[in-house]
């Protein structure tokens, strides 16, 4: 929300790089509505906003909803293509109608689990102890890679079970073409063959400089010996290596959860870029603007960032890949392991795709720092800076997570509660929760609020990363003394100590100050802190109203009597005819209830028990419909 005030599309279009990558379009609610790839981000993204182009009705609708965009720079179009696929699967954007399937991107498979491994074409990565490389843009690219590897390292192409079937048949055509040394005839020991496979794996992992150097030497020798045909074959091999050597790093065969973190520093400004790899796929990234002291080293800044970042996030990956080592690495690694509940590895990759992924994170961090410096400062002011202003007003420090609540009614019979969450001044929509009021009858906001807070803070979840598992640093109530006291009452009963702050309104229903620790604190209505409070307040209202609409659209808005077991339409009508209000039904005893038409002893008891639970407390953790 409010992105249109800080993101100037025309200005940001000028900063786009002429590099390959993926662009991500956001709407006014900051939802991702489209993900696309580009050979040149500068050219592709600008096309969406050019009036002269005939974009079609669908794209016109999409463009009209774009409030901001972001992008991730990659090293190649192939990487952009695979990352686009990952992001579409993760976020399912509204305007991406064609979701790509992994089967469109074949892999190269090395059967390292065999005594005499083979290099094969594969459509999927499986957990079969083989090594996979790719995905590639096409099946032809994989076939070219397999052919090149066979020419370079003379690995077998047959499906024989070796050494069990060794010597049963004559050598195949590849032996006569000098592309295989016939391990099927027992002419090559498993140890010597494994040495070749080791070189194959290094080559497929991007370490092909030595191979090119060796082939160049052979090409020059053949040329000097006037063996021009042989020299041409070496030249063709070198060109094939250079063509196929382009590797992507957006999908990992290990299928684990990892983060890749790198930084860009310029004077007293720094940006940390975090790439999120989940189940082996790069599914997203985030960047963080940092204010650093002159003279701070990258290692010091990195250590400080890791402690702050992972203290504020509930999920700790198994591995964190870093661009530099630092003195506190072992201590932070142990701390993260304790938070995760199992060992965590902080590693500085030195080669392969992991190193290249960290390099890519560093490249994106440098670009963000260079091109988005002023925008990040403004964004920091309206998020983290706004939170710091609130901290100063109420005299507490360390506010990361804020929760706000709102209660709404529909005709007095249907009450709902909303819970919105802001972390570091930004909405965290994945942690929002909605409550359908169950224990309160009629439009009683205070009682409904007490129910919502009780259910929220007594919720128990089997999910390790449920949003209810994290307590807020500050609770914001949409009101003054009354609502604050309700919240403090619930927290006191549960033995919790969480600061509660009320948002006091004036006669025009506009926030004029904060109510904290039995006093009203005036606030500057022109400040970023005030604007953040207003956004939180509006978001709590919006979320509650949206829940109402969903209930109405599903035809679920009905009398609370419909929720009583054993009371159907006939008994509900009889009750409403006999009593003047819901309060009279609630106050009636069993004897009064059972004389009503269609009611019997059992149904009367069910109605009575519904409104008079026999000393049982609320059932914690029930949210939504």
The SS-based structural class is alpha+beta
How would a textbook summarize the main sheet?
8 strands, mixed
The global form is elongated
Helical percent range?
40-55%
Q: Return Rg in Å.
A: 32 Å
Number of domains: 5
And the CATH topology of the largest domain? Nucleotidyltransferase, domain 5
Measured between the Cα atoms of the first and last residue, the distance is: 27 Å
* Poorly predicted segments: 1-5, 98-104, 553-557, 615-625
Number of helices: 22
Q: What is the mean predicted local confidence, pLDDT?
A: 80
Shape-level CATH architecture of the largest domain: 2-Layer Sandwich
Strand content: 15-25%
Per DSSP E runs of 2 or more residues, the count of β-strands stands at 19
Question: Considering the protein shown, what is the CATH homologous superfamily of the largest domain?
Answer: UvrC, RNAse H endonuclease domain
Would you give an account of this structure?
With 625 residues, the protein is of the alpha+beta class. The chain has five domains: 3-100, GIY-YIG endonuclease, CATH 3.40.1440.10; 107-208, no CATH class; 258-382, Nucleotidyltransferase, domain 5, CATH 3.30.420; 388-553, UvrC, RNAse H endonuclease domain (Nucleotidyltransferase, domain 5); 560-611, 5' to 3' exonuclease, C-terminal subdomain (DNA polymerase, domain 1, Orthogonal Bundle). 42% of the residues lie in helices and 18% in strands. It has 22 helices and 19 strands. The strands form four sheets. Strands 12, 13, 14, 15, 16, 17, 18 and 19 form an eight-stranded mixed β-sheet that branches. Strands 9-8-7-10-11 form a five-stranded mixed β-sheet. The protein has a three-stranded antiparallel β-sheet with strand order 2-1-3. Helix 6 crosses helix 10 (228-244), helix 9 (209-224) packs antiparallel against helix 10 (228-244) and helix 15 crosses helix 18. The chain is elongated, with a radius of gyration of 32 Å.
């Amino acid at each position: 929300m409010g992105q249109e005030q800080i993101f100037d599309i025309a200005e940001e279009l000028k900063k786009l790089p002429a590099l390959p990558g993926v662009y991500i379009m956001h709407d006014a609610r900051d939802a991702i509505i489209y993900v696309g790839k580009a050979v040149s981000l500068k050219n592709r993204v600008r096309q969406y906003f050019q009036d002269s182009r005939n974009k079609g009705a669908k794209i016109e609708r999409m463009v009209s909803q774009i409030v901001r965009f972001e992008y991730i720079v990659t090293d190649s179009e192939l990487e952009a293509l695979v990352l686009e696929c990952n992001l579409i699967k993760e976020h399912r954007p509204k305007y991406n109608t064609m979701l790509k399937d992994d089967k469109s991107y074949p892999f190269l498979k090395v059967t390292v689990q065999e005594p005499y491994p083979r290099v094969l074409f594969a459509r999927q990565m499986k957990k079969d102890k083989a090594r996979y490389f790719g995905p590639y843009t096409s099946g032809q690219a994989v076939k070219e890679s397999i052919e090149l590897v066979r020419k370079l390292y003379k690995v077998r192409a047959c499906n024989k079970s070796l050494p069990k079937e060794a010597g049963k048949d004559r050598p195949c055509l590849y032996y006569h073409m000098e592309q295989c040394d016939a391990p099927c005839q027992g002419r090559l020991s498993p140890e010597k063959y494994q040495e070749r496979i080791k070189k194959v794996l290094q080559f497929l992992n991007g370490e092909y400089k030595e191979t090119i150097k060796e082939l160049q030497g052979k090409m020059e020798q053949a040329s000097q010996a006037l063996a021009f045909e042989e020299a041409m074959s070496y030249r063709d091999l070198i060109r094939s290596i250079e063509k196929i050597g382009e590797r992507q790093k957006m999908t990992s065969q290990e299928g684990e959860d990892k983060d890749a973190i790198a930084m860009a520093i310029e004077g007293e400004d720094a940006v940390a870029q975090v790439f999120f790899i989940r189940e082996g796929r790069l599914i997203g990234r985030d960047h963080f603007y940092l204010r650093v002291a002159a003279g701070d080293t990258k290692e010091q800044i990195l250590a400080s960032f890791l402690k702050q970042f992972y203290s504020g996030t509930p999920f700790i990956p198994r591995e964190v890949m870093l661009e530099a080592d630092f003195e506190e690495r072992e201590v932070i690694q142990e701390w993260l392991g304790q938070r995760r509940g199992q060992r965590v590895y902080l590693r500085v990759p030195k080669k392969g795709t992991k190193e290249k992924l960290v390099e890519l994170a560093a490249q994106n961090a440098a670009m963000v720092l260079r091109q988005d410096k002023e925008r990040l400062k403004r964004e920091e002011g309206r998020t983290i800076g706004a939170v710091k202003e609130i901290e100063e007003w109420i005299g507490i420090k360390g506010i990361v997570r804020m929760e706000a609540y709102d209660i709404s009614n529909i005709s007095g019979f249907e009450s709902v509660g909303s819970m919105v969450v802001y972390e570091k001044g930004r909405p965290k929509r994945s942690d929002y929760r909605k409550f359908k009021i169950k224990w309160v009858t009629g439009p009683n906001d205070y009682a409904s609020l007490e129910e919502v807070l009780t259910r929220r803070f007594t919720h128990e979840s089997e999910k390790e990363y449920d949003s209810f598992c994290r307590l807020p640093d500050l609770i914001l109530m949409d009101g003054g003394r009354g609502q604050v006291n309700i919240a403090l009452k619930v927290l006191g009963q549960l033995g919790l100590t969480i600061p509660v702050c009320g948002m006091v309104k004036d006669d025009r229903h506009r926030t004029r100050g904060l109510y904290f620790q039995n006093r009203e604190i005036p606030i500057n209505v022109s400040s970023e802190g005030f604007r953040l409070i207003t956004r939180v307040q509006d978001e709590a209202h919006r979320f509650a109203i949206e829940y109402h609409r969903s209930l109405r659209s599903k035809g679920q808005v009905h009398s609370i009597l419909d929720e009583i077991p054993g009371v159907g339409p006939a008994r509900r009508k009889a009750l409403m005819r006999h009593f003047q209000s819901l309060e009279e039904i609630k106050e009636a005893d069993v004897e009064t209830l059972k004389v009503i038409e269609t009611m019997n002893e059992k149904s009367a008891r069910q109605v009575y028990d519904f409104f008079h639970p026999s000393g049982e407390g609320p059932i914690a953790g029930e949210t939504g419909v």
